[in-house]
Amino acid sequence: MISATVSEDTVCLFQSVQVDVQVSSPGVFEYNWFPAYQFNDPTLQSPTLIVQESGWYGVTVSTIGGICTLASDSVYIH
User: Fold this and answer.
1) Rounded distance, CA 78 to CA 27, Å?
2) Mean pLDDT by 10-residue block, N- to C-terminus, for the chain (78 residues)?
3) Which one, of 37, 49, 38, 53, lies nearest residue 6 by Cα?
4) CA nearest to 45, candidates 20, 23, 73
5) Contact of 63 with 70, CB cutoff 8 Å
6) Do residues 7 and 77 lie in contact, with contact meaning Cβ atoms separated by under 8 Å?
7) Angle at 37 between CA 31 and CA 43, to 5 degrees
8) Reduced to 3 states, what is the DSSP secondary structure of residue 75?
9) Does the pTM of the predicted model rise above 0.90?
10) Residue 62 burial (CB < 10 Å; 0-12/13-18/19+)?
């Protein structure tokens, strides 16, 4: 199971905010945050998001090499 979170309760447009995903299973994983262009590095576990619009921001967690997708989660920023 995974859980995506945002570091701030209140976020304004064009403000930077830290996002994070926690994975309950042990291991080494690949992270893909989307939409990718709004993150400083969409492949990090805890990238910085520059909020350009209200909406859903999500992450998919996979095993190394993308062989097995474990789960996806998302957060809504308004």
Assistant:
1) 33
2) 79 88 87 94 95 90 77 83
3) 49
4) 20
5) yes
6) no
7) 15
8) strand
9) no
10) middle
